[in-house]
Amino acid sequence: MKRTGEMSKSSPSAVSGRAQQLLKLLVERYIREGQPIGSRTLARGLGMDLSPASIRNVMADLEDMGLIKAPHTSAGRIPTVQGYRLFVDSLLTVKPLEQCEVHALRDKFGQTADPQQVLVTASSLLSEVSSMAGVIMVPRREQATVRQVEFVSLSDNRVLVVLVLSGHEVQNRVIHTSRRYSPSELTQAANYLNHALSGKDFNKVRDALLNEMRETQENINQLMMAAIEMANRTFQGAEEGGDYVLAGQTNLMAYAEMADIERLRLLFEAFNRKRDILHLLDQSLHAQGVQIFIGEESGYEVLDSCSVVTSPYEVEGEVVGVLGVIGPTRMAYDRLIPLVDVTARLLGAALNQTQ
Amino acid sequence: MKRTGEMSKSSPSAVSGRAQQLLKLLVERYIREGQPIGSRTLARGLGMDLSPASIRNVMADLEDMGLIKAPHTSAGRIPTVQGYRLFVDSLLTVKPLEQCEVHALRDKFGQTADPQQVLVTASSLLSEVSSMAGVIMVPRREQATVRQVEFVSLSDNRVLVVLVLSGHEVQNRVIHTSRRYSPSELTQAANYLNHALSGKDFNKVRDALLNEMRETQENINQLMMAAIEMANRTFQGAEEGGDYVLAGQTNLMAYAEMADIERLRLLFEAFNRKRDILHLLDQSLHAQGVQIFIGEESGYEVLDSCSVVTSPYEVEGEVVGVLGVIGPTRMAYDRLIPLVDVTARLLGAALNQTQ
DNA sequence: GTTTAGCACTCCTTCTATATGAGTGCTAAC
DNA sequence: GTTAGCACTCATATAGAAGGAGTGCTAAAC
Question: Which residues of B touch A154 (CB under 8 A)?
Fold first, then answer.
């Protein structure tokens, strides 16, 4: 599934000032209109007085450098991946969000308190504002620690096990026990576990704890085993690469460049499978600021006609996840970059408050 | 969005034996091959020796009755919604699942213990076996009661509120309190609430409780208010029509009859919106056994080219939800009906065990 | 009365030919 | 270095013709 990118066939050498200006105009225009741009159109759009013929010369150079290409002989040119890359890296003039837009976003964030809900809100927001798909990695539990364990007695022989994890995530499960436990037994078991587990790296103390329990053979073991097994499963899941929240898949179906339903199906299946997308997001985890994968750059075939704009987000000064938007290669990078950037900050801030 | 169905234009009168036999063959064949069936093909498939011309006469009758139609003058015939309806109601010979298939399904169910997880498994199962979309309404909390409330003290001024609801669902949320509460205060508050709430219909006691609290003005109110607010939100959510788990959307993208990407987009958006689909599923809640909505019968435009096969499922002898598959009108009803039926039973059984 | 062969007719599909037009690359002149 | 001119390419659109699947109708056969 993963592939290595190919490089431009010609020298990626210095591009003359005018050629750059032209490329910029071409990419901007193509992003706006979605159709191959011809020399005549470009000549009109350009400020200076240059004939289409001159433009054609420059365009031929750009094509040699692998920055633009013609879908067929008598069409205009469209940017290649390398063209987009150069555009994004050195030609792009970003359009910062308006103050009111930022405020609108901030307001939306303000409304929700539940951490999980914040992620859902944020991904919906990303997808709505961008008209593409918004994706947010759920925050990684940086160190695998259990903060607190509680046992709550229910009716019959059922006990509710509550695990409070680092990062204030709470997990619970009802277990059926072989006998009824008194409240004091439950407290005792909880105290024991809390003392043994709290603050320590779970993976390190787990085995010691299990051994100890095997020796003492206490019959409240059943409860503790359940708790440990729960924690185990949780942390194992986390190690296996985490999870993400996705919104606005359907937005992608409205783009003409996504019309191939079979390709789209494969993309959606990749979304469901999650693995590939997570790997991609992981790559941005330790980048600072916004990162962009254009077309085949991502290395995943299903994303060949897509670009992904990502940004890591921080909670309490530490990067805990990545968020981004996914859409057709022909996307409004100038608007999306600040959008993703701002959303990452807002999400971090919102998650800080729920801690 | 909701519409009323139109009826057949001609008399839905008695259909002769041979005509029925022919219709059956036609529908079966069309479901298998997906292309309009002509008189010649039908004559060959039919056991008895009849010339295409004779068949044509019968087909003309069937068309007059609104049971089949021709996409255009010189194509064969395809079933109309009414044709499918008659087929499903009185002509269909269901293909019960093989014993080994049933066992395979049962095995899959056996593996999961968490109720929420069971729903996910079951919907995936439905979608995989049917190669269409599988949908499962989450079990309805029949009466809105809170079984138990617990407060767990966390570090700082944070308290974890745990709500155990009827149906063994557990909800939790961390709240920030204005001051630190002692363990005995927490127990006291929990006891108070448990006494007031447990087993009673929440909506009935809520207001009385709130009034009482306003009078006593105890400052542990903050905790109790939070708990009540949580319960309120939960039950309100339940009253607003519940929720469902969906799997295998992408399967639908592989069908030729779903090739229109814009229609598909609208369908997927309806899936996200949930409301319409929930309304539809609700209609099957009090039907006994499998129910089928063919094409426009559902009354929702987005489902015009789809059929939905549903069945309610029971926990402890009481219907708590509906499950089903959604796919193109041209679906293998004979296989799907038993599949949905069996899955409903298995789901009920699996949920019984997790109680 | 039912069945069937025959036949004209419809209309989708495919193929071919042709025109149109947008846009190019190249050359030669400015 | 720039540009006008021109031949060339190729996607797109349109029209006509051939082919074929399937129908409806009529009249004859059973």
Answer: 147-148, 164
Quote the CA–CA distance of A155 and B200 in Å, as a whole number: 16
Q: What residue ranges define each of the domains in chain B, with the CATH number in brackets? A: 17-91 (1.10.10.10), 99-139+242-354 (3.30.450.40), 146-239 (3.30.390.60)
Per-residue pLDDT tens for B297-340?
A: 999 999 999 999 999 999 989 999 999 999 999 999 999 999 99
Which residue in the block uniquely carries the two structure tokens 């408050």? Answer: A353
Residue closest to B41 by CA, chosen among B66, B16, B67, B75: B75
- State in Å, rounded, how far the first CA of chain B is from the last one: 38
Determine the average pLDDT of the residues in B53-63: 95
What token pair was written down for B104? 């395979």
The SS3 call for residue B345 is helix
The owner of tokens 């003290």 is: B153
Q: Which residue of B has its CA nearest to A147?
A: B154
Q: Test A264 with B253 for CB contact under 8 angstroms.
A: yes
Q: State whether B259 and A261 contact (CB < 8 Å).
A: yes
DSSP helix/strand/coil, B123: helix
Q: Is the CB of A69 under 7 A from strand C?
A: no
Which residue is associated with the tokens 């095995």? B107
- Range B17-41 average pLDDT: 94
Q: How far apart are CA A131 and CA B355, in angstroms?
A: 43
- Residues of A near B (Cβ–Cβ under 8 Å) read 114, 147-148, 150, 152, 154-155, 160, 162, 164, 168, 170, 172-174, 249-250, 253-254, 259, 261-262, 264-265, 268-269, 272
SS3 B219: coil
Chain A positions in Cβ-Cβ contact with residue B158 (cut-off 8 Å): 168
Q: Which long-range contacts (CB under 8 A, 24 or more apart) does B110-119 make?
A: B110/B350, B112/B350, B113/B354, B114/A173, B114/B354, B115/B139, B115/B168, B115/B169, B115/B351, B115/B354, B118/B347, B118/B350, B118/B351, B118/B354, B119/B245, B119/B347
